[in-house]
Specification:
mainly beta; 7-stranded antiparallel sheet; 6-stranded antiparallel sheet; 2 helices; 37 strands; about 0% helix; binds beta-D-fructofuranose
Length: about 525
């Protein structure tokens, strides 16, 4: 991070009023070429999962799996940033560092309102982080059934400094290899804490009065449904089904390998929870995916978000190639923060998502309206930028094209396609021609998402940011997230249509700061 870009305040770098590297003529193109403008990235070094997301006294806290000394995964710390609006982030010093008990793997954080933990000293409520200790020495010694346990740490100064609990671990390893990523929430009906923990091919549920003593209450996953692969980073929360009085519980379940687009991805279940165990409303074979792209993993939601909002953030990469992507001094970005909702659809109750409304703070200049028209080959969008928000509606009844959407390109002839294929009724992102991809053979081709909506009006909301695209189709019923690495930043954008016309009924575009 160059001084010229940002205000330096002690060890804390403020991102407010920063000149983004993308617009900065002094930007070091070698190390910063693919750095996004409005997605969260670490200043330097390696980042993976979002951790410990919690809101307290006007601040959204974001912790993340972090290795500051290298751009590949290593001894895991919890990096830390805060935001007042989910859009502008202030980097803070590292919150948790590895110690003799191990690396600090993923987990969650809560506000201990009633001081159940007894950690409170002054006026501030304790923030308590619950994480996995991964003992590398045990792993190296082949003691795989002993290496992961759960620990806690607390802060009594609004998350600025953290103390690990002297009697860690709070949950010892019961001789299980993959035993990690505790997600803790306050469970109001019994005024206690509840934890969902990923354990191999299932999750386990635990209960506690004080965040220190935990008791197992149940399991879900082995038979009741679920995709194979190692289960990681679960999140269990209630949501009201929109327009009804029905409350359902949603279990987000990240799967390390074999997800819908290949590699890692996020499955979800809709069902009930009685404080002890979750039950799936759907058949085990009905597999629901949060995102159909390749690059949205380990996502979980904020605790204590105001106005009962259920806010989600994922890591915009995939374990198949995360350590190889061609960025310079830093590796990987987070998705946009998204608001989740549940809606009744013809297929059943489904999760919808859209970028948080605060995202509109980034719109710069006037909204550009794209005229209603039938597009038969391409329609160039001007002025062009690589940080855009696009909202397009098409009338399928009047569309004869086999396939239509948006294409990004550059003077090197590289292209990134995002579209809808009418015959197969699927959305897609295609990065076959998108630039650098030799770093990993699976980093090519087309990812598909079935269209589940049946409305003849099809909407595409697109967020493009230098090296990533997020598609929210049909009002957030379907989402796809992919990253890409053109040799030269994309600087052209067009709506395309193949083998017929695409009937555009409404088009809006904003350039984003
Ligand atoms: C998911 C994950 C977690 C683990 C962390 C380690 O991406 O594998 O299960 O806690 O990353 O960095």
């Amino acid at each position: 991070m160059k001084k010229i870009n940002c205000l330096l305040l002690g060890t804390v770098t403020l991102f407010f009023a920063c000149v983004s590297p993308q617009n900065d003529p002094k930007k070091d193109t070698k190390t910063e070429q693919h750095r996004p403008n409005y997605h969260f990235t670490p200043q330097k070094g390696w980042m993976n999962d979002p951790n410990g997301m919690v809101f307290y006294k006007g601040e959204y806290h974001l912790f993340y799996q972090y290795y500051p000394d290298s751009t590949v995964w290593g001894p895991m710390h919890w990096g830390h940033a805060v935001s007042k609006d989910l859009v502008h982030w202030e980097h803070l010093p590292i919150a948790l560092a590895p110690d003799e008990k191990g690396y600090i793997f993923s987990g969650s954080a809560v506000v201990d309102e009633n001081n159940t933990s007894g950690f409170q000293k002054g006026d501030e409520k304790p923030l308590v982080a619950i994480f996995t200790y991964h003992d590398m020495a045990a792993e190296k010694a082949g003691k795989l059934l002993e290496m992961e346990s759960q620990g806690i740490a607390y802060s009594i100064d609004k998350g600025r400094t953290w103390t690990k609990y002297a009697q860690n671990p709070v949950i010892k390893n019961p001789k299980t290899q993959d035993f990690r990523d505790p997600n803790v929430k306050w469970y109001a009906p019994s005024k206690q804490w509840r934890m969902t923990l990923a354990v191999g091919d299932h999750v386990e549920f635990y209960a506690s009065k004080n965040l220190k003593d935990w008791e197992k209450t149940g399991e879900f996953g082995k038979k009741e449904g679920g995709h194979g692969g190692v289960w990681e980073c679960p999140d269990l929360f209630p949501l009201q089904v929109e327009g009804t009085n029905t409350e359902k519980w949603v279990l987000l379940q990240n799967i390390g390998r074999g997800a819908v687009a290949g590699g890692s991805g996020t499955q979800y279940f809709v069902g009930t929870y009685d404080g002890k165990v979750f039950k799936n409303d759907n058949k085990p074979t009905d597999i629901l995916w949060l995102d159909y792209g390749m690059d949205n993993y380990a996502g979980v939601t904020w605790n204590n978000a105001p106005d009962n909002r259920r806010l989600f953030l994922g890591w915009m990469s995939d374990w198949l190639y995360a350590t190889k992507v061609p960025t310079g001094s830093w590796r990987s970005a987070m998705t946009l923060p998204r608001e989740l909702s549940l809606k009744n659809t013809a297929q059943g109750i489904r999760l919808f998502q859209k970028p948080v409304k605060e995202q509109t703070l980034l719109r710069t200049g006037a909204q550009q309206n794209i005229a209603t028209q039938s597009i038969s080959t391409t329609y160039d969008l001007k002025p062009i930028a690589i940080t855009n928000e696009l909202s397009l509606s098409f009338d399928l009844a009047k569309t004869t094209a086999s396939d239509f959407g948006v294409v990004l390109s550059n003077s090197k002839g590289e292209k990134l396609w995002v579209g809808y294929e009418k015959s197969s009724n699927r959305f897609y992102i295609d990065r076959t021609e998108s630039g650098k991809k030799d770093f990993e053979k699976s980093f090519t081709g087309r990812h598909y998402a079935p269209r589940t909506a049946s409305n003849p009006l099809l909407t595409l909301n697109l967020y493009i940011d230098v090296a990533s695209i997020e598609l929210f189709a049909d009002g957030g019923e379907t989402a796809m997230t992919d990253i890409f690495f053109p040799n030269e930043d994309f600087n052209k954008m067009a709506i395309f249509s193949k083998n017929g016309v695409a009937a555009l009924t409404k088009g809006e575009m904003w350039q984003l700061k």
